[in-house]
Amino acid sequence: MEEKNSTIQKTDFLENILRNKRKEVALKKQFFNKKNWEDFPFFSRKCFSLKQNLLSLPIGIIAEFKRKSPSKGWLNQEANLLEVTTGYQQAGAVGISILTDADFFGGSVEDIIAVRDKISCPILKKDFVVDEFQIYEAKAIGADVVLLIAAALTVPEVKNFARLAHQLGLEVLLEVHNKEELNYLNEYVDIVGVNNRNLDTFEVNIDTSLELANLIPSTFTKISESGISKIQTIKILKQAGYQGFLIGEHFIKEKDPADALRQFINQLIR
Length: 270
Fold this sequence. Notes:
- By secondary structure, the protein is an alpha/beta fold.
- It has a single domain, classed as Aldolase class I (TIM Barrel).
- It has 11 helices and 10 strands.
- The strands form 2 sheets. It has an 8-stranded parallel barrel with strand order 1-4-5-6-7-8-9-10, surrounded by 5 helices.
- The radius of gyration is 17 Å and the shape is globular.
């Protein structure tokens, strides 16, 4: 299968990120609590539905704003947040993923706050959730969807966090990497994202999505994540039953990410 990268030396980068994230959240909790978040203007807004967009719109591309990655460093340090995100929406993205981790991805929760009332499509707050505090934070800053990573959590944590997200009006994207992690699925998950990137080796293999496609119950909307850069790959994954595709580096590394998305979609619909 195409779009398969050579193996990079094994790393414990996920555990490093989670360790750092727990410290970050502990620090934030000294200054914010549930009541603080409820006072934020966006906390009471009705969320947009990414799931509905994926099911109703023909081109299910979720475009990602990501300044850097742990494996490749800076991707586009000069990218203008507002220009790129509004451009993504105008180009036809069904949703926009915004990395909010600072240390490893160069993001910030302020990135979502800055564009929330400038765009009218769903925003996925892409980060590493380790505490329910972050679910409240996601709602308060104007996110519509929260990411839960199976590899970073226990089965009970996923269910508890997903339940809380639903109580707050957020949708839940559960990210899995193998068939064993499908055991994390529960009734509060809205979207299942199969990440084609191996978290230990960074190897990207689209076959991961193809292997899991038929194992994901049809009651869940499913998307494929990472390593997608070719029109043919999208067509193969659509035939396998995927309704959406989260694409980040392929667009953001370009001088004009929004135009890159526009051209990609134009080729896709020909």
